[in-house]
Amino acid sequence: MSISAPLPPPIALSIGVTGHRIGNAAFSANRARIERVLADVMDRIDAAAAAAAAPIRLHSLLTDGVDQIAARHALDHGWELVAPLPFGRDLNVAINALPETVADGQALAAGRAASDPVTEARAAAIRELAASARLFELAERDALLNRLFIDKLAAPTDLHAAQAFAARCSARVALAGRVLIEQSDLVIGVWDGISRAFLGGTGHTISEALEHGTPVIWIDANAPEDWQILRAPEALAASGQVDVDQREAALVELVGAALKPPGEDRTPGLANERWRPHSNRIATSYRRIEALFAGEGHRFRSLRQVYETPEAIAAGSGASLLALARDLPGADPAMPAAIEQQVLRRFAWTDGVSAWLSDAYRGGMIANFIFSAFAVVVGILYDPLGLADRKWLFASTELLLLSTILLITFVGSRLRWHGRWFETRRVAEYLRHAPILLLLGVARAPGRWPQGADVAWPEYHARRALRAVGLPRVALSPAYLRQALSDLLDRHVVSQRDYHWGKARRLTAVHHNLDTFSTRLFQLAVASVTVYLVVKAGSVLGLVPHGWPQALSKPGTFLGVALPTFGAAIAGIRYFGDFERFAAISEVTAAKLDGLHSRITLLLAAPDDRIDYARVSELAHAVDDVVVSEIENWQAVFGGKHIAVPV
Q1: What is the pLDDT of residues 162-197, one digit of tens each?
Q2: Which UniProt keywords apply (predicted)?
Q3: Same-domain pairing of 286 and 168
Q4: What is the CATH number for 193?
Q5: Is the domain of 222 the same as that of 322?
Q6: Residue 456 · residue 470 · CB < 8 Å
Q7: Domain coverage including residue 154
Q8: Looking at residue 51, what is its pLDDT?
Q9: What are phi and psi of 450, to 5 degrees?
Q10: Do residues 439 and 571 both lie within one domain?
């Protein structure tokens, strides 16, 4: 049975927008010019994306000013609008409508209209856009923020109340801004260039985007026609003369780079891969070495692997995760199906392909080491057997073994077993823990993804799959975060920690036993040569019959060659497998995950009002960092070990 490659994840462009509110002096003075330039930039992005037939998704916090202008432009042009709100929907309306009385603040926070017509007009504008957007509401601290908000309105001259609310509010806006950055391929920022110090402000958001490696199209609120593209934090200090022709070409290039990895035309990705239902029985040499030398289970047990089909994963290994996703309090009902379609099915497919390629590449190299040792031994075996007249048989067998080594090496190199294994394994590992990140609205910003030295399509493929799912429609609550933390994130951390601890123990044993076995073979070789020399000396001294050295000559010579040859092959396998380094990588990974498990346990012991999105998302990011670090480490070990003749 063969299953064709799944269709590539849909190509789409995700952008974010941040900018000044109506009350900003530069924005108010230049509003018409800013609106015109902002529309022009968005139209240029639209045209560049249209060339790749890519839909566009805009992320906006929906505050008055730039956010709402961009959101309306997006909706008018058929873009998807997504709003990561710093508060729940109603509290977000209440805070951003800027009411001046407690009564209006309380009414808006309860979902009712404000009595003041100006305040209600601001609220209505937010509600209108929110009704057309996918909302990801950071609502788990709404009770506290609502109390601080009302306290501020009740005592407008109380500086302490104002500062207490402003501090909490700014932190929430900065948190929503981080979500926006993580979900965007590029960010449009309308900023006067004055300050980056205000937490959650436009300057701070632009600076954070650049720190995360997300390009920013900066429209200066004082000189909007001189917009420019920033790619690094240092560009904020070095911005100067703008080359109009160059920036427009750079914008097209920026959109193209977000949609298509460099060199994609030269690499088929998954399109030409073939999925197989199970492992190849003759390509399990590497896993057989582990089974023989790990000291676990029956050494000659069957190593046949049956790969889970993409169609079966929802009812198989992914069933518990999907059930937990459905059971989250207030969960987005569309998320489980989207995760199954875009993530789990792709994971099952790439995991199966990668496992088969791993066997082919690593098993092929182990076979080369074994065949090379047998080629040497068979080449001299005729001598101790006294079959010199039939040496041609042994020479033919030696030639067959050497030719097989060359054939394995040629086929493995031609079919890129090594490179394809690396690429598909990267995709599979990125997707393995992706459902948990998606359910928490956590993503790795484009600039934080690993940069492959050879090809970039695995990272783009995984990112596109995650982008296809996007942020969940959910109003986060302490109950949602607690259950996601305990049942999803911590469960994953514990399972991966235990896996890496077991892997570290197993590979340490393999390394030790291979080293011991190789050493014993060399010791036996020394012993065989020593025995011959002792017998020869005894013969010269007349202590043993003179015929003994002659009788031991050929067997001794054979053992003196065969034993070191097999010992060297075992040592070569140990070097190629690098079991000790992989064990060390797994030990470090397990220790990191254990530390994260301890942190999660501490947070779960806290009351609900202490479990907030900032802490939970930080833990999710930490888990993601551990996963990516482990991928980079093991690929660094095997990166230069292409399939080759054993020398």
Answers
A1: 999 999 999 999 999 999 999 999 999 999 999 888
A2: Membrane, Transmembrane, Transmembrane helix
A3: no
A4: 3.40.50.450
A5: no
A6: no
A7: 13-259
A8: 86
A9: -60, 145
A10: yes
Instruction: Show the CA angle centred on residue 269, arms to residues 267 and 270, nearest 5°.
Output: 150
The pLDDT assigned to 386 comes to: 87
Per DSSP, 282 falls in state G
Question: What residues in the chain have per-residue pLDDT under 50?
Answer: none
Which of 6, 1, 2 is closest to 350 using CA atoms?
A: 6
Distance between CA atoms of 214 and 196, rounded to whole angstroms? Answer: 17
- For the chain, helix (H) and strand (E) counts, in that order, are 24, 8
In a domain, 233, yes or no: yes
Mark whether 244 and 302 lie in a shared domain: no
Task: Single out the residue of 69, 82, 57 nearest to residue 471, CA to CA.
Answer: 82
The answer on 255 and 303 residing in a single domain is no
Is the residue at 6 inside a domain?
no
**Cα(450)–Cα(511) distance, integer angstroms:** 30
Report how many domains make up the chain.
2
Could you give the 3-state DSSP secondary structure of residue 278? strand
Could you tell me if 242 and 342 lie in one domain?
no
76 is a domain residue: yes
| β-pair partners for 218 | 189, 228
Q: Which of 259, 293, 317 is the last residue of a domain?
A: 259
Q: Is residue 275 included in any domain, yes or no? A: no
Rounded to the nearest 5 percent, the helix, strand and coil shares of the chain are 65, 5, 30
Name residue 625's amino acid. Answer: D
The pLDDT of residue 367 = 94
Contact 228, 250 (CB under 8 A): no
How far apart (Å, rounded) are the C-alpha atoms in residues 407 and 409? 5
Amino acid at 401: L
100 and 207 housed in the same domain: yes
Q: How many CB atoms lie within 10 A of CB 51?
A: 11
d(CA 204, CA 118): 29
Q: How far apart are CA 533 and CA 544, in angstroms?
A: 12
pLDDT of residue 322: 97
Out of 225, 259, 293, pick the residue that ends a domain.
259
CB burial of residue 315 (10 Å; 0-12, 13-18, 19+): exposed
Closest by Cα among 367, 360, 352, 364 to 305: 352
Same domain, 91 and 33: yes
- Kindly report the number of other CB atoms within 10 A of residue 399's CB atom: 13
pLDDT tens, residue by residue, 344-381: 999 999 999 999 999 999 999 999 999 999 999 999 99
